[in-house]
Amino acid sequence: MRPSPGENATWQLSTKVCRISHFLAEETAELLLSRATHAAQEDLYPSRVRGNQVDTRTRRALSHVGFEAEELTDAINKVRGPVERALGISCEGTEPAFALNIHNDGDFYQPHQDVSSHEAAKGMLAANRVVTFVYYMHRTPVAFSGGALRMYDTAAPLRMDGTLDPKECSYRDYPPEHNSVIFFAPSALHEVRRVSCPSREHADSRFAINGWLCRNPAVRGE
Ligand SMILES: O=C(O)CCC(=O)C(=O)O
Ligand SMILES: [Fe+2]
């Protein structure tokens, strides 16, 4: 008889990412970093988790939603074709929606999916997110450590409730290197590892423009 996988069997499917370093022209990257560094303190507020709550056990960071980054969205549009092919996801009819996220000393974002299978199945707001992108910036020399983006491989089959347990998944860490961008499917389990930034200065932070190519960007959902 052919062996059949038991209930505890796990398949690790490596998660596809597209990562591009030196993404923007150097002057453009510096301009964006300077805009992020000079963001008005009153425009920054504690980052929220889905459901629009502040939950500092899950996520500790600051966000700026009105941040302007046309230079970045133009460049993203130009690489859309190869990204679609590499990830195997069609972005037709999508528009970017994004925010600036700032991680300073002790900040992190616990493992999460930008779209859960529950949300996708129920057609909830976050299900409009088709591809996640994250563009990183920091001053040189870098003044923080940690803060890697940890991408978990998918454990298949998923649990009966559709969730993933990070402890059961292998992973790969990507450094938040200045002027690099990464694209992945919003259903991929990922995490921001804790940042250590001894000076605690805003300008020394890990800056990320994090967003999604969305089917209906007017209804972003958090
Ligand atoms: O900053 C990053 O590396 C990822 C942030 C993230 O996962 C999110 O904001 O949903
Ligand atoms: Fe995320």
Structure report:
- The chain is of the alpha+beta class.
- The chain has a single domain, classed as Jelly Rolls (Sandwich), CATH 2.60.120.
- Helices cover 16% and strands 31% of the residues.
- The protein has helices at residues 26-37, 70-87, 117-122; strands at residues 11-13, 17-20, 45-46, 59-60, 62-64, 95-103, 108-112, 129-137, 145-146, 149-152, 154-156, 171-174, 180-184, 190-192, 195-196, 206-214.
- The strands form four sheets. A seven-stranded antiparallel sheet has the order 2-13-8-16-6-5-3. It has a five-stranded antiparallel sheet with strand order 4-7-14-10-12, with no helix packed on it. The chain has a two-stranded antiparallel sheet with strand order 1-11.
- The longest helix has 18 residues, at 70-87.
- It is globular and about 45 Å long.
- The termini are far apart.
- The model has no long low-confidence stretch (mean pLDDT 88).
- The site of 2-oxoglutaric acid has 9 residues, from strand 14 and strand 16.
- 2-oxoglutaric acid binds next to strand 14 and strand 16.
- GO terms for molecular function: dioxygenase activity; iron ion binding; L-ascorbic acid binding; oxidoreductase activity, acting on paired donors, with incorporation or reduction of molecular oxygen.
- Its cofactor is L-ascorbate.
- Residues 93-215 form the Fe2OG dioxygenase domain.
